[in-house]
Each structure stands twice: as structure tokens, then as C-alpha cells.
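Chain X:
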Amino acid sequence: MLDLIIRGGQVVTPMGVGEWDVAVQGERIAAVAAPGALGDEAGRIVDATGMVVVPGGIEPHAHISAPIMGHGDLKTAPPEQVSRAALYGGTTTLLDFAIQYPGIDIPQAIAERTGVWQGNSYADYSHHLMLLGQIPQEIIGSLHEAVEDGFATFKIFTTNIRPPATTGEPRMVGTGHLHDLMEEIQRLSAMLLVHAEDDDMVQHMYQKLTREERTEWHNMPLVHSAESEDVSFRRVLRVAEWTGAPVYFVHVSALHGVQNIAEARANGRPVYGETLHNYCCFNQDNYKEENGMKYHTYPSLKSEADRQSLWDGIINGGLQTMATDEYCTSWETKIAGRTISDVTGGHNGAEARMGITYSEGVSKQGMTLQRFVDVTSANAAKIMGLYPRKGVLAPGSDADICLIDPSIKRKLTKDDFHITDYSIWEGRDIEGWPVTTILRGKVVVENGSFTASPGGGQFLRRKVDPAVADRPVV
């Protein structure tokens, strides 16, 4: 007898969308079949009539229990809080960062993350490795061991993000180290994640605006500018062309970034890009609101034309994933910074990601349901080495499933969120929202009730498909 049958919904699969039944046995999907073909012998039948049935979301970019720049030992929300909120929002897998600081090796960085996450996550999870500053040759030489252990993705920065006095440990990886790292990434068929801004331009603008006494936070787009992103993207792509390395650009925020990615992909290169749902829904004018720093994530919000270009990329294929750069703080911490040098980036985005992408993309702009699945789940699974275990409704895949109710039409309120004490999405009109979440065959969210087991999330080891690292597969 089957454990669970989901019946009556519009089921989104790689082969199309249809009113199929989804059968679950244990933690895996057993079948996707014609209505009624599975019979009624099941431990439970979920009536999904009127619902859209999609794979559980995959958040590819989150900073969880991470140091908050400029706030001493204060950290972002921990796994138990973020994973709970993520499940409420239909996201079943989270990827954050194990940071290799100077003076520690990669196994020590992984051990730190293991200590933070193990037994503390409701959702499934994995870790990218983050490499900072002048990467020692012995660290680059040890990457193969990390890849063999299932850590297949590495992140670097081409900027220190904030002025040296406020940033803490230097983050910027110089072009020489970037080249050496890319050579190794290419050899290992791993994936390189890049936060790309030109540090010379960023630091120059911090200094220039300080001299001119124009340091109010709403000037942030002058510091973290579209030009800086464009210049850095082009430099990174040029080094990637020399080395053959695959590149995944995180949080693309401007039109030129989208264009640079499209150009590289048109030449058959393995280049991928994500944007964030807040970049798609707000622009630099929102900074001028009272407490408008609440919208800020590094890099900055850009122009209205940039915002529209990001939606075009998400809907029509120029970008591959919708992420959040989850960086959850309290309201007090979020609004404490009032200048370009001390504003706190990030927000509590993982819970709203699936719902906002559906409401704004599918309901309001006509994005297809298959494209919705691509940008919220399937593409991240493929790029990051989780497919087909995750990111697809197919026999043998994990039974990670989200039911979205497209009939929900109202304003979001504070009560719709289950983490921290504010949300930039409060008051937004929505058309469709996640209502049921299933994690590996277990219904964990239903009708507002949360029944996931503490520590029930599993750690996921990953391996990037060599095809994904060789050409633009998604």
C-alpha cells in the first residue's frame, strides 16, 4: 500500500503540466500517474483540487547563523528558525556557507558548519565553501578532497563590500588567485560562485561620497553601482574564458549583468546567473522611504529599468535561479545603520521566495508553471549537484512537494511570516501562495499547522554533473 497520494492538482513535471496523481512511498516519489490509476489504497490521500503541485523549493544562497558585518559577535538567524520559515514558504532545501577563514583549513570550516546545523534543521541542507582574500596555495590544492567529500561548490568575492574599517576579515580575491582557483575548479568539474563587483570602484565611491558629505543610505546605488557590476562581470568572464571554469554569478542586480551572462552562454560557455526576489520587486527609489534601508542587500537595488530586466531574465531564460541571499536580522539591527558605510544588508527572504515568485511571475506576468519550477527548484538542483534527487516530481526523486493555492488574493500581513519581527513583503498584494509542504514524504506544513520534526532535515552531499560544468545546460 502506498503511503501517500496527492490527487486533483495541476502537477508540474519536466514533461508538462497535467491533472495527475502523485504517489509517495517512504521518502520517495513512487509514481506520477493518470487520475485514478493508482486506486485508493494509501495511508493518506491529499486532495489538491484547485492547487498547483510543484517540487519543493531549493534556496541556493543563504547566510544562516553568519556573522553580521559591523555588529561584533551578532549573527543572523540560526538553522532552526530559517528552516522552519522556509518550510512554511514551500522551500525544502537550503544551501548556506562554510567559511574558510585565514588560519583554518577546509575540514575545520566544514566542522564549524556541521556543529551549527547537525540536529538543528527542519529542512534538508547543504553547504557551499566560501574562500576569502588571498587564498593559500595549500587551500587550492586541497579542494579536490572537499569535492570528493560532496562539497562541490565554492564562493568568492571580487570586492570587500564595505570600507576596510567596517568589513572585518578581507574578502576580496584578486585576479591572480581567481585564475588559480578557476583552473582547479575546471579540473574538478566543480562550480564557482562569484559575488562580482569592482572593488576599486566601490572603495573609490565610499571615499568620494564621504568627502562630499553624501553618506545617506539612499546613495548606496552610487557605491554598489551597475557600472561596477558590469566591469567585474567582464573581468571574471574573461578569466573564465582563459581557464574554462564554470561560473555562477550570485545576486545579479542590473541589466548589464544579465547581458554579460547571455553573451557568454551564447558562446557555449558554462555560465549561470541568479537574481533575488527583492531585486525583482523593488528599485533604488524605495531607499528614499522612511527606514528605506530595510530593502538593502549587497549589491544595491538599481534602477527601474534594471528591475524590469531581471524579471525578463527570470521569465524568459536570461537568468537561471531566483534566490534570496537570506540574511535574517531583527528590525532593530536592520535599521541601525543609517549611512552608506554601515547599513546592514540582507533580509528574511527564504519564506517568501516561492510565493512572491509565483504571485509576481506566474499570476501577474504570465510566467509558465514549468519556468516557475525551473527558477525556484530544478535549475538550482542541476547547477548545484542535487538533481534528480531534488528539484523534480519524478519516480525515484525525494518526495519534496509544495502545493500552491492560486485562489489566494489578499495583502500579506506580519502574521504570514514565521521568523524575525519584520518583513519587506508586509502589505504586498499577492495572487497565489504556498499552503502545503511535504518533505521527503512527510506533510510538514498544512493549513497553517507546522508538524516537522526538530532536527529532521538531512545533510546533502553533492556532485556537479560534468555537463553542467562544461556548457550551459540550463
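Chain Y:
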Amino acid sequence: MSDAYRAAPTPLRDDHVTDAGGAFVRPPSRFRNWVTADGRPGPQGQGGFRAEPGRYHLYAALICPWAQRTLILRQLKQLQDVVSVSIVLPQRGPQGWEFGAMRGCSPDVVNGERYLRDVYLRAEPHYDGRVTVPVLWDRERATIVNNESADIVRMLNSAFDAYTPVATDFYPPALRAGIDAVNDMVYEQLNNGVYRAGLARSQTAYEHAYDAVFSALDGLEARLASQRYLVGTTITEADWRLFPTLVRFDAVYHTLFKCNARRLVDYPNLWAYTRELYQWPGIAATVDLEHIKLGYWRSGERNPNGIVPKGPELDLCRAHGRDRLPAGDTADPRSS
């Protein structure tokens, strides 16, 4: 790393921000450019980021539900040879996310850095914001394209279609209104809701978030009793954005984040649905419960002794039985 980068200010860790009422607030992502098929600007940001094989690199963490979304789309669209990836260690240290030798991790093969913070500094030498995953890096322009998982999911879904045999669109135009509505609810009440419960600094803020989490789970349980997926018979982006929260629920959020009214396994439809999604080709490779439990339970602030629970035992490979409900063309052919 050059002296110019070493002299730059140290970025903040991914610290937790709360408002005056003690409610957790997630700051917005800073880098919001888009990779597009022809290099034109996306919904926001500047242009010039044309989809090309080998040009882009994804920095991710197996612990992180936001990063897992992007790893899932990379698998579903068979982009492993198009977009390369580096996986950081599950625990953040004083310098934040770090690359290291552990099963499931991989080095920074693009920039050769030890810490993700220094990748951010390569993109913006005076960066002083949060250092988060996922990050989509452009080798050609030597910069971060985007560090917002929802954006990266959309890019992986469609921008690289010329370089993959997978034609499936997980955000099809005919279903976008329904997908967006589900995404908004799931993000507010579940994806971010569990964090709002677990990181709240007042009883009122915690209880408000807690109630929202279980209101959402109860509603999704009822929805999935009569339809295969969140927006009907076709699996979509909405399902894959929910899945990372569900697969972490019993191992982390139920106890560590105090979302303990019910476990995921107490919801028959949601538990079967989670197993179905886990069993899709390639998806199990994005789920690493060892990384997940180490990263959360040894975070220090919420579990100062660093003791990692041995359980729970989750049989994600057990038959799901969801094939009793009608599914569209994108249903997993291995349904059981």
C-alpha cells in the first residue's frame, strides 16, 4: 500500500448509531454507482461501468446477511467465473473487517490488502465513513462501484446476462410492484428489524422493534400457507432477500438479539420454506453457520465473554414438502 494511503485518516468501524430515543439507525451506503450491460448510468450515480467478465470483484463476509444476498445472486446466475470474490474473516478487530487464513475465507486477490478499510481508502483516500460489506470493486477504474447490497443484487441479476447461461430474471417487470412491497416490509420489520431489536438502547425502542419482527413473521407464516413463494408461484428477489435473515434467526437473533417470542422452527411454513431455499443448487455454499455464530457471538459488546453456543441443531437438509403448492418455471427441480 502506498504512503499516500497509509497517511489517510483511519475510517470508522461499522459502529452502531442510535437516535435520541435509543433506536438503532442504519446510515446510508456511500457508494451508489451501477454496473450496467452497456455502461450507461444506472438508477443513480455516474456511467462508465460496463458489465465485462473479469472486471469486477466482490468483497463479502459469510457472517453478513447483506453480503450473503449478493453471494446468492452470484450463485443463482452462475457468475462465479465472471465476478471474482474475496471473503473476510467473520470477526471484526480494531481495524474492522480483515482478510485472513480460516476455512471459508479468501485473500484480497485484487488489491493485496490485509484490511477492507484500506480497499475503501484506495477508492477514496480521505474516506471517513463506515467500512461495510458487500463491496463491488472495479479493477479497470480501481474504485468501489457500490457498497449497497440491494443495488448489487439487482446488478448481478441482470447486468451480466450476456455472460451467463442463466436467463432467469429474479426481478421480472410483471412482478416488480409486488416484489417492492414485500421488500419494503421485510427490510423494515425483519432484515433491519432484528438489528433494531438487538441494538436498541432503550426498552421502548427494543419493544417496538420486537413487536414488528414477530408481526412480520406471523404474517409471512400465514402467506406461505397458501402460496409457494412471497410473490406467488415464482421465486424472486424478495425470497432471496428474506432468506439470509431466516437462516440466522434461531442461531443468533432469537437469543443474542432478544427476539425470543418464537423460534423459526416454531413456524411450520416458514421453516419448510427456509429449508427449500437452502436446498436450491448452490445456496448451501453461501451459508456458513460457523462463520455466522463466531461473528455475532464474539462481537464483544453483546456477549463480552465470547462464548459461542454449540446449538441449535438445524436440519436444513430435511425434506421440505413445499412441492404441494404450485410453483412457476423457476422452481427448484430437486423439490422434495
